[in-house]
Amino acid sequence: MMTNVMSAAYPDLVAAASCYSGVAAGCLAGSPGSSPISADPTCANGQIALSDQAWAARARNMFPGYAGAYPRIQTLHGTADTLVRIPNLDQQLRQWAAVKGLSLTRNNTNTPQSGYTQI
Questions:
Q1: Which long-range contacts (CB under 8 A, 24 or more apart) does 5-9 make?
Q2: Which PANTHER family match (predicted)?
């Protein structure tokens, strides 16, 4: 979970990051705890639905005024995770695509191997 937060809060110190079954930066904002077990479950369940630009604003607001490049992000998420659900992958992808000015238009199925999709 902290990969996305650290990448958004310290983009000047992070060149690249890899997130495994995480949530978008700012998803846990205002939650009573910082882990999926103690936090508001709507985040881990993938039920916080924001626009791409709203997710991007949450990330950018972690370092107001920052005008440099944001880190490269690799995010992986399995469909069998019952604690941090798969909709969080989409929210992370949309957040970082908006922060970096990218579009999510290409899906490569069975890449890097059978059963995986590279987005």
A1: 5/62, 7/59, 7/70, 7/71, 7/73, 8/58, 8/59, 8/60, 8/62, 8/63, 8/70, 8/99, 9/62, 9/63
A2: FERULOYL ESTERASE B, UNNAMED PRODUCT-RELATED
Number of independent structural domains in the chain: 1
93: its two tokens: 């992808």
Q: What digits encode the pLDDT tens for the residues 30-74?
A: 888 766 677 788 888 999 999 999 999 999 999 999 999 999 999
Domain interval for residue 51: 2-118
| 10: DSSP letter | -
Q: Which of 87, 21, 18 is nearest to 55 (CA)?
A: 87
Instruction: Please state, as a whole number, how many other Cβ atoms lie within 10 Å of the Cβ of residue 22.
Output: 24
- Cβ atoms 88, 23 nearer than 8 A: yes
Give the side-chain half-sphere CA count within 13 A for 29.
13
pTM (2 d.p.): 0.88
Distance (Å, whole) CA 19 – CA 88:
11
